[in-house]
Amino acid sequence: MLSMKSTITHLTYVLLLLALFACSHLPDSGQTAGGSGGGMAEHFGYSKDHRLVMGMNAAYAPLQYVDDNGTPCGYDVEFTKLLMNRMGIPFTFSPNHWNKMSPGVSSGEFDLGMLVYSPYRKNSTNYSNAVFRLYYQIVYRKADYTEFDFRHLKGKRIAYMKSRPIGTMLKESEAVGDSITDLGQAFVDLAKGEYDGLICYRFQAKYNISQLHLEKLLQADELSLEPREYCYASKNAELIDSINAELKRMEAEGLIDEVYGQDVVSTFDAIRIPTWVWALLAVLTFLFLIIFSVNRYLLSKRLQLAYDQMAEKNDALQIANARAEESTRMKSAFIKQISHEIRTPLNILSGFTQLLAAPGNLLSDADKAEASAKVVESTDRITGLVDKMLELSEVSSHTVLERTDEVTPLLIAREAVMASGIDEAQHVAFAVQTEAGADVAFHTNQCSAVRILELLLDNAKKFTRPAEAYLAQTAQTSDRRERVTLTVSQSEGVVRFVVEDTGIGVPRSEAEHIFGEFVQLDEYYDGTGIGLAVARSLARRLGGDVVLDTSYTSGARFVFTLSLA
Questions:
Q1: Is the sign of the CA dihedral 451, 457, 460, 461 positive or negative?
Q2: Each residue of 385-396: b (16+ CB within 10 Å) or e?
Q3: How far is CA 332 from CA 167, 279, 292, 298, 439, in A?
Q4: Beta-bridge partners for 126
Q5: Dihedral angle at the C-alpha atoms of 444, 447, 452, 458, nearest 10 degrees?
Q6: What is the SS3 assignment for 384?
Q7: Strands across the sheet containing 59-60
Q8: pLDDT digits over 94-134, tens only?
Q9: Are 484 and 460 in contact, with CB atoms under 8 Å apart?
Q10: Given 44, 324, 472, 512, which is the most exposed site by the fewest CB atoms within 10 A?
């Protein structure tokens, strides 16, 4: 247990972090409200004879569209004019169909465009900070539903603007997804009864219902789905950096809200989340900050010791600085991931508790039982995340674990299989192979050994399942059964557990990197990036190790060894 002095130190550290966060969001007092000036156009090679080409969607009202006279109009057009004038860059608009926007930016046909951020295009396109966020709504006919039941979509025909996350979600719900290109026509078709519902952004629902005078026929409700970020996009990373700096100044001056207004810039005002959910979120956030500050404190102590030892070696000091920057980047990615992991079950908790608490709800006993089960499942998921964060604090420990339990390697394997549940996974053909010495008892720490093997089996189970983002991109299904094999043996004074799978594998160059804290090589898979770091730390504290066999190329093969010495 931490001493009172240590606890106060950590709490102070948290407050300092919050203060630094607040300071980082203050306007830059060294910049004028007028922006960067005309020198920026010359820097990027733009002039009146060579203007920046701003790609735009000719039919994406009210953000951007072309009127009957062929004039670019919309909130995006006005905001871009203001932005470019502040930056002193001559520009011109190039109206196009929406499906040509992303390829045009990626190929360099357009110098700039406004797009919804997509992780699938991040390697070919540079995105600015979000100008604002877009929230989803479901639109339906009032005559068909008193309240749209979004839990039961099987067989329902749902229209939506082309979106991989929405398409994947509808596919998982066994709904009939109809990807449309003409949103205005889709609203007309919905009013005629050709769809059961239409998923679009909040501002699109409000605009089209009003423009088409469908207020008496259609109703829109909020969806608890991940909001999308609406950004400027360009192949020119330096241009995006300059736009980010200008956007920060414009946000500080309130110009974004002034141009777009509340009709477009959405908030969560319409979603009523119970007070106890906010309280739970506050407690979890505070707990996370405490755990994170302790881990950061321990890490800073290790770095400080390294700096003291290498004070007279300039080259080594530069390497240490580079490592510190990489650690900060990975922790930032970890914070973003763990925030997403916590927000998902909280959204489920919010939705189902509102449903259960709604006055006069007509839910059957079966529906109430299902809702209660989802609430329990989400609570367990949050508890699991907290347990992982607590476990993370042990990664930095070098304390040798006691090896007083007499147990066979085969018993350790059986308990790890049961704890991971891999033998019940539908997408995996799992098998345990025993070799010489598998049933010969030896001394170790049974709980830690089981945990190490459980983490390796969890890793194999996760990365043999095709990511849903890949399935949506390639139009494949996940019917294929992958193979995972656990081999247990004991010979020449070494107990060996080999976990071999036919999943996505690990590049040879990342064989050591994957054992670092917060490391995730593939963004399409859920997780916190700490499982392998915990497994190796525990193994070494038991006098063993966990390594990746780089000679295996049909997936991934992890070897967990324990010395009998």
A1: negative
A2: beebbebbeebb
A3: 29, 24, 11, 17, 45
A4: 234
A5: 150
A6: helix
A7: 59-60, 64-66, 72-73
A8: 998 878 888 999 999 999 999 999 888 888 899 999 999 99
A9: yes
A10: 512
